[in-house]
Amino acid sequence: MALNLSQKQEVVAELAEVASKAHSLVAVEYAGTTVEQMTAMRKKARETGVFLKVVKNTLASRAVGGTEFEVVKDALTGPLLYAFSMEEPGAAGRLIKEFAKGNDKLKAKVVSVEGKLLPAAHVDVLASLPTREEALAMLARVLAEPAAMFARAVKAVADKQGGGEVAAEATAEA
Hints:
The protein has 174 residues and is of the alpha+beta class. Helices cover 55% and strands 16% of the residues.
């Protein structure tokens, strides 16, 4: 169905707003994907904070103009599905990688993060980025490790000097 000028302007405005807030973009060739697969992918995208849209490349290139995804303009050829990660950078990569396992016709064509155009093979790298919760858990573990090492060192020194036995005897007498 052909869009009139006002509908095209609405699509460009919507996509431009999404692109200005997104963390990463993955454009995927989707030809040959069934309706059921697309519906499942859209459902999963809503759950994971990924904005999916099939739109003409000319409209997409206008929409990404002036955003950090402007570098992808020349790579937008063929029928593409655009996946913008809204909450965390790796979400779109994980979504595309998950659905590409069950559908060999789904192929990443463009990957862009932080204003850089990356090869399509970098969708695996993008997918391997930790989620926000995983990153916070790693940070907490890194921050807690020095205190744990200090506690182990103090205990080792106390055990070496015999303080550990005295403390054990004192608690046994009480």
